[in-house]
Every structure is written in C-alpha cells, then in structure tokens.
Amino acid sequence: MTDDREARRGFWRQNSLTLAFGIAFLVVLACQAVTGHAGFNEQMTVDGLQPITFADYLASSDFAVDVTENWQSEFLQFFLYIFGTVYLVQRGSPESKKVHKAGTESDEEQRMGEHARPDSPRWAGTGDWRQSLYARSLGTVMGTLFVLSWTAQSITGTAAYNDQQLRQLEDPVSWAGYLTTPDFWGRTLQNWQSELLAVAAMVVLSIYLRQRGSPESKPVGAAHTSTGVEG
Q1: Do 89 and 19 have their domain in common?
Q2: Domain tally for the chain?
C-alpha cells in the first residue's frame, strides 16, 4: 500500500503542471457554461421567448461558438510563436533563443541524424521523411488545431448567427455569407489582438522583470542583456 501511495504521489508531482491546468480548464469551462446559460436565458426572456434548459444550452451553437472562438486564438498564438521564434529574436528575453542562433540550426545542435543520442526520439535519427516531419511536428499540429478550431467557430457561429436572425424575423445567411459578416470578424479579431498583445508583453517584460523559480523567467541575478537564459 505504501508503494502504491508513493507511486500515486509521484505521478501527481511529476505531472502537476498539466494536471493543474487541465483541472483549472474544466472548472473554468463549467463556470463559463453556467454563466453563459444564465445570460442566454436572460436574452431569451427579453425577446419574449421561452428559456432553455442547461443541457440544451450545452448542445447549442451559442455555447459552441463562444468556446471555439477562444480556442482558435490560443492555438494561433502558439502556432505563430513556435514558427516565429525560429527566425525572430529579442535580445535580453528568455522567450527568445540566442541572437546568433536564429534559424533552424544545425543537425548537431538539434541532435538529428547521425547526431541523435540513444535517448533521442526514434524519428530524430532516421534521416528520411519521418525526421523532416517530426522536426516540424509541434508547429504543424498547433497550426492544424488552429485551422480546425477556426473552422468549428465559423460553422457554429453561422448557426448561432442564423438563430438570432430568425428570432428577429430576418433572413438567415449561408456559411460563406457569414464569413463576410462583422459578427464573425469581430469575434475573431478581438481574440487575435489580445493574444498577440499578451505574447509581446511577455517577451518584453521578461527582459527586465523576474520570477524566481520559473522557467519562463531568467535567473533573478541574470543581466538584462542575457538572451535565451531560463531560471
């Protein structure tokens, strides 16, 4: 029993970052659903329509579009940052690699091909299409998730927009038509600008400010000009 308890404790400790954020995500999503349901029914009452149940709201396009519009902007943020930091640098920021390392770097630096180590991922040392694919897998997956979530936002947004159109006795629009509406681009751009601002702020503030013990910060005593150094 003691060994099992220690194993469970070790699992939670070794995966605490993922577990904490995963649990927080579910809690916040649940809170969003509750408040969104209340707000939706409030609007339905104002429009003189019958409120819907919580289960119906969870299956509605209104809830889906509110969720997916945030997801797509987050995946866009990471997609742009992953690819952008290959070539773009910021002197003094731990979020940037060292200025002289801008670019894809050598096989030796990346531990690829003949430079792969015994503990390297298997595809890193293959030297064929698998290595090329794996070398870009993180950015590719983030980009794919962005496209999928943005597509989901456009589809659910069309349904939600048309529901509102019908409640106001106006004609619905097609999916292509919805992509040209201020509603779609308003939802999209308000999220994009906030994500880009957050990234820029993190890059710049981390030059001069510190957080002891965080890998997102330089060591407290590191010079402001130190680049690509994490604490």
Answers
A1: no
A2: 2
Let me know the angle formed at the C-alpha of 190 by 185 and 193, rounded to the nearest 5 degrees: 115
pLDDT by residue (tens digit) across 70-120? Answer: 999 999 999 999 999 999 999 999 888 888 889 989 999 899 999 999 999
Comparing C-alpha atoms, which of 28, 21, 67, 77 is closest to residue 194? 77
| Residues 94 and 218 sit within 8 Å (Cβ to Cβ) | yes
State the Cα–Cα distance between residues 210 and 92, nearest whole angstrom.
Answer: 12
d(CA 65, CA 88): 33
Summarised one tens digit per residue, pLDDT across range 11-34 is 888 899 999 999 999 999 999 999
Q: Which domain holds residue 25?
A: 1-59
The structure's pTM equals 0.86
Q: Are 71 and 146 in contact (CB under 8 A)?
A: no
Q: Both 210 and 174 in a single domain?
A: yes
Contact present, 113 and 120 (Cβ < 8 Å): no
Q: Residue 17 falls within a domain, yes or no?
A: yes
